[in-house]
């Protein structure tokens, strides 16, 4: 009797279960890869921003070595923080592209101003003219800016200098519309931005005594509060377009929102004061950590964001600024660099 052997039919493909398993593995691996790539991208942006701020600091320090003061073409008390911010004020001094004078300036300064404007008109270059009143002295400052000439170097006391700062193209953003949009953090002048496209803040020490932060331009303090209003009050700032204002919010802890002026003063005082010489019993005073501070909003695009930073015992963000201390500063994703000793 002939015996027979059963040979099962060969399968020509995968079962549905096998296909689903493979797809699941691919999806998981893709997710892990995307997270890793995203993390690497953000780390690279953070490193790039830190390098940019360090370059700006080096430029400020080099400027101070030559001129015995830190950059700013007009006094901080003349800044309204909208038409000209503290950062732009320094940027012009470092890069040039401006002329400025007041009623007490040498006659030659006004002549240079007029010649600079005439040259811009003859070359069909766009330019901006600002008149900024200084309540501390009563002087009006006349500022002319030709953005396309930024990078030629400043003229100080009649002497031309090479530019102190040469940002990358991606770090200097021009307003091509020619008009201001304060809710978007735009005036008519260029902005110095971080790797996320958010404007950088610059705070320069103006006095050696008094409270750390002055609540308004006509009050005395080591650092002015109002020089960055364009950015701090914006509702759609930078490439990320996030709201800094606390209304509609949640916004920045540096904005004068529902909590009033005390919240930004407290956080700025912590940022600008030296932790070793700060007394919580006199929370608006202290010893300045340095002559100036340069600050990026970091990955979240909001300066000292209210949805970032310290949390309370319930795991919610802690908005009680009265209890904030220097240790809380490290709980934000902002990037801060100090300069000038």
Please describe what this structure looks like.
This protein has a 3-stranded antiparallel β-sheet, covered by helices on one side. It starts with 15 loop residues before the first helix and ends with a strand. 27% of the residues lie in helices and 12% in strands. The chain has one domain. With 341 residues, it is an alpha+beta fold. The longest helix has 52 residues, at 16-67. The radius of gyration is 27 Å and the shape is globular.
Shape: globular
Judged by helices, strands and strand pairing, the structural class is alpha+beta
* String of helices and strands: HHEHEEEEEEEEEHHEE
The largest pleated sheet is described as: 3 strands, antiparallel
Summary?
By secondary structure, this protein is of the alpha+beta class. It has helices spanning 16-67, 86-95, 107-122, 229-232, 262-272; strands at residues 98-101, 128-133, 140-145, 155-156, 159-160, 172-173, 191-192, 201-204, 213-214, 223-224, 292-296, 335-339. Helix content is 27%, strand content 12%.
Question: What attributes does this structure have?
Answer:
alpha+beta; 341 residues; single chain; 12% strand; 3-stranded antiparallel beta sheet; 27% helix; 12 strands
């Amino acid at each position: 009797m002939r015996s027979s052997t059963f040979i099962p039919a060969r399968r020509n493909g995968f079962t549905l279960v096998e296909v689903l398993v493979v797809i699941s593995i691919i999806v998981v691996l893709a997710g892990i890869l995307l997270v890793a790539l995203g993390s690497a991208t953000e780390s690279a942006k953070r490193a790039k921003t830190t390098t940019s701020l360090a370059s700006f600091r080096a430029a400020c320090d080099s400027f101070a070595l030559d001129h015995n003061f830190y950059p700013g073409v007009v006094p901080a008390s003349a800044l309204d923080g909208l038409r000209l911010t503290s950062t732009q004020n320094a940027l012009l001094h470092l890069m040039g592209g401006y002329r400025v004078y007041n009623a007490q300036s040498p006659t030659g300064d006004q002549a240079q101003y007029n010649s600079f404007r005439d040259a811009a008109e003859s070359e069909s270059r766009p330019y901006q003219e600002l008149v900024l009143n200084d309540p501390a002295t009563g002087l009006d400052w006349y500022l002319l800016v030709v953005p396309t000439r930024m990078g030629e170097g400043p003229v100080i006391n009649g002497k031309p200098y090479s530019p102190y700062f040469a940002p990358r193209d991606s770090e200097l953003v021009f307003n091509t519309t020619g008009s201001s949009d304060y809710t978007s953090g735009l005036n008519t002048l260029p902005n110095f931005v971080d790797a996320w496209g958010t404007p950088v803040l610059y705070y320069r020490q103006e006095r050696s005594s008094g409270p750390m932060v002055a609540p308004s331009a006509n009050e005395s303090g080591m650092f002015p509060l109002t020089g960055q209003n364009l950015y701090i009050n914006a509702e759609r700032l930078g490439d990320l377009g996030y709201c800094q204002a606390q209304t509609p919010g949640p916004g920045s802890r540096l904005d004068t929102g529902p909590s009033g002026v005390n919240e930004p003063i407290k956080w700025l005082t912590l940022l600008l004061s030296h932790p070793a010489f700060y007394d919580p019993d006199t929370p608006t005073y202290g010893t300045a950590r340095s002559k100036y501070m340069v600050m990026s909003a970091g990955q979240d695009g909001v300066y000292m964001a209210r949805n970032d930073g310290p949390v309370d015992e319930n795991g919610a963000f802690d908005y009680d600024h009265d209890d904030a201390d220097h240790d809380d500063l490290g709980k934000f994703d902002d990037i801060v660099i100090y300069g000038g000793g």
